[in-house]
Specification:
With about 260 residues, the protein is of the alpha/beta class. Helices cover about 40% and strands about 15% of the residues.
Length: about 260
Amino acid sequence: MTGPESILLGVLNVTPDSFSDGGRWMDAGAASERAFRMVEEGAGAIDVGGSSSRPGAVPVGAREERARVEPVLRRLAGRLGVPVSIDTSHPDVARMALDEGATIVNDIRALADPALRRLVAERRSGAIVMHMRGHPLTMQDDPRYGDVVEEVRASLEEAVRRCEDDGIPRARIWTDPGIGFGKTHGHNLSLLADLPRTRVEGCRLCVGPSRKGFLGRILDGAPVSDRLEGTLACVALAAAAGAQMIRVHDVREARRAVR
């Protein structure tokens, strides 16, 4: 699957401190308007998150995360026309989101929590299982790998097997190599250069390079607000490599790049 068949997963951060657009969509009305706009621009799904996972981020409790995303999800329920993903590691937040109409759970911790796996299995929802070494607060503290591509693939395979053991079939799983999550600049480039080798058999591939820090380094120190060219290059590369889902902030431009 390549090119126009790649689904663009539009990022909707309902957080005050996300690395790219923290604080911009904290108002539920503005956030829901943003979701509808991304669908108009070509997003095939929307990913709603209430906790920043940028390098150095301090974890947010389930109660606060829920308070941020629930009003937005209620405004989108049954009206958006595309699937909604909840970006969370908290089973309670995921349960609320699924109750409000979300159909995908996107977890940066690869569904490490058995309760979250059981919930996904029970609800027969989709799951995005992402690779991350460590935690957002410390993940960029000297990450090391031998063969980063093979180690990421093996870790994702292990996570998928846990999901299978708890009743989640591979056909409902996307695996995400976790660009920028516990990886150096070189690690990120190696993963992007060899995306097909990160695949886990029977699962679909999701890639999230949008506006990441390694692009700023490539683009002569460009700030987050000025990394569009690098993002679009990665989007086109991921689509050509067969990624079925690509997580982006700039939906309209990414859609054009994919086509």
